[in-house]
Hints:
Number of strands: 6
Radius of gyration: 31 Å
Number of helices: 4
Distance between the termini: 78 Å
Amino acid sequence: xxxxxxxxAQPHTRRTTLRAAGLGAAALALPNxxxxxxxxxxxxxxxxxxxxxxxxxxxxQEPNCALxxxxxxxxxxxSGSVINLWLGALGRWDCDSRAELKWHRAVEACRGSECGDxxxxxxxxxxxxxxxxxxxxxxxxxxxRCCSVIAECCACTSDPSGYCCCAAGKCGPxxxx
Length: 177
């Protein structure tokens, strides 16, 4: 049985070299061929207000960042040290970078399937509450409530949740009868 070092030491033809290069290129290109993520369209009514709120939060951070830069200039004038000017510039750049990163994350959250809370953004949808935790063996999940195992979960037009618990075999076309 040959060791893989021995296989590398053998002379290679152009064909094996091209094959190895093709496999390497395919391995590097494979992560870029993933399916795109599902995103909300930018035409949703809550998208533009959400992006505008993210931009406003970024613009509101600008005076704080500018203050850090002027603090370095002030320290330069007082102490005469260029190091203080450099530290002030670094603080300003750090502040700007953090504000931009927050903006990018907020815009990415706006692209989600639920733009945001309806009270904050027009057309937004509040996240759905988690399903109720029913007692195992005694209850089953029926919409946003729990029904006993004996009862039947029916689709109801009269109930706001769209479901109701009916006695076994008592489900009708519009709910319990």
